[in-house]
Every structure is written in C-alpha cells, then in structure tokens.
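Observation: inputs received (chain + zinc ion).
Thought: call the complex predictor directly.
Action: predict_structure
Action Input:
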Amino acid sequence: MGMYFSGFATRTGEGCEDSVRRLARELDAADAVLVGAGAGLFTSAGLTYSGERLARYFSDFVRKYHFADMYSGGFYSFTSESERWGFWSRYIWINRYAPIPSDTYKQLYDLVKDKDYFVLTTNVDHCFQRSGFDRGRLFYTQGDYGLWQCSKPCHDATYDNESVVRSMVLAQGFSISGDGTLELSPGGLDACGRMVPERLAPRCPVCGRPMSMNLRADDTFVEDAGWHRAAARYQDFVRRHEGCRMLLLVLGVGGNTPVIIKYPFWRMTASSRKATYACVNLGESFCPREIVGQSVLLDAGITQVLRDVAREL
Ligand SMILES: [Zn+2]
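Observation:
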C-alpha cells in the first residue's frame, strides 16, 4: 500500500468529555459514516459468552467438557454429530435469533440512520440487521451464525438454518417464547438432553457430507454470492466517498484481525485530510501517530459513549 506508520498514540490530548463532544461534532458534520465493528460491540450489547449466559444455557456441557466460555466450546470435538448440534443449536439460537439484551445497536442506528453510512464488521451475529440497519449497507466479512455450508465445501452456497435450529433446541426440551427467548424446561438443563435426533443433523444437499457453520475459522469458509455482493458494495462506498468529509467510526475492534478494519481505516484516514478516525474501545483505543490530529480516541464503554454522543447532538 506504500504507507507505513511510525508508532502509536493512545491519547489525543483531550479529556473524555471533550472527545465525546468532538465525536458528536464530527458525526454531525460528516457527509458519510463508515462504521467498523468488532466483538467489543457485541459484548457491549450484553451478548457475553461466559458468566450468567454460559451457566444458564450450557452448564451441562461445561460439566462434561470444562470450557470457560461458549466461544471456546465451539472448538471442541464432541462425541457425536447429535451432541455437536446440541451444543451449536443452543449457541446459534441465543446469539443469533433470541432478542438482543440491550438497545446498544439501536442507539448506534439512531446516530447514523440519516447519514450515508456503511458498516463493515467481523461480527457474525446479525445484530445490525436485526436493529434496523439496511442490509444493503452491511458487510459481514467473517460469516453468519444463521448460515450453514457444506463442510468440504463442495459448492459455494450457504443455507439459512433458523427452522432446523429451532427444531433442534425444541428437541432438547427447551421452549421458545413469542419474542424468541430460549426458555429452559421446568426440569432445567438436567432434564434436557444434550443431543438432537440424528435426523436433524444437517447434510449437504449436493454431496451428502455434514454441514458446518459458515464462519471463517479456516480455509473451508464459503464466500457465497451474498458475501461477494456485500464486498462490492463496501468497495463502492469507499470509492464514492474518497475525499469526502467522512467519519470512520471503529467500535470494539480488538487486535485479532487488524487487516480487516483497523489497517484500511488508518490508511483511508491518512490519505484524506477531510477524514476523521474515531475509535471507541474499553482498554484498547489507539491510532498511528501520523493521524492523531485527525483522530478521536475514547477508552470507554461503547454503550455509554453512544448515549453521551446522542445527548450532545
Ligand atoms: Zn457438499
């Protein structure tokens, strides 16, 4: 890319309140807003992988496999397909189809909905679309909990899993309330089998192999037609707004996959003096020194910052 950064800054010299005010001002003045969102946003919305949610829905699996959070549980080799889908169906349901526990995403939507916006995210939970964001303005680069693919894969298509996942959790003795909340049976998890009937284990309609999650964990990840269309729309958004007054707003992006969001956002900021880079991340908010004058860095909770910004507008 021909652009190298010399070091990092964690502060812009402003206090937190000044930064919030500046972020509100930049948002208000921006012609376009490009949001980059990572796992920290998902967690800020109350979608945690450990603690109460883990105990509530997975204590039977934890007793057997001793994983510390449900995300790690996804990497275990279970004893059978039936048990594997017992685990995954609960995981998919509570993180993809059950109600989002807080209005963090709705707050963000309210801040950007009247702007020309686009969202690039490594999250796979579909919270943006479920909170009102236009699906034509989203690019989920790493997959979707709501999609399956052939495990080989023998072809590049993905398949909606909602109705089968629903059958899987019901078969384990859970019920699903009207708003989509996964409810335990009166006997709790002990009364609930960890298994789903073998007939529900999904098979590839083309080759008959087991299906797998459409998540970028290794090189079997399927980039289907929808993925390619979203990628093209993202590139188009960036191209159309070159040189515009653009706010690049990064929320909850950690250090795991910097090539997807952070590095390109830094480069875009450095290459346009009308661009502003804003980063909100509790415990990890920094930018290259070269763009510190164009940056708003907030080492703070995302939900609180969004609320404070809305109040400033
Ligand atoms: Zn196949």
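Thought: report the result.
Final Answer: Residues 150, 152, 154, 204, 206-207, 209 surround zinc ion (CB under 6 Å). The CA atoms of residues 8 and 288 lie 4 Å apart.
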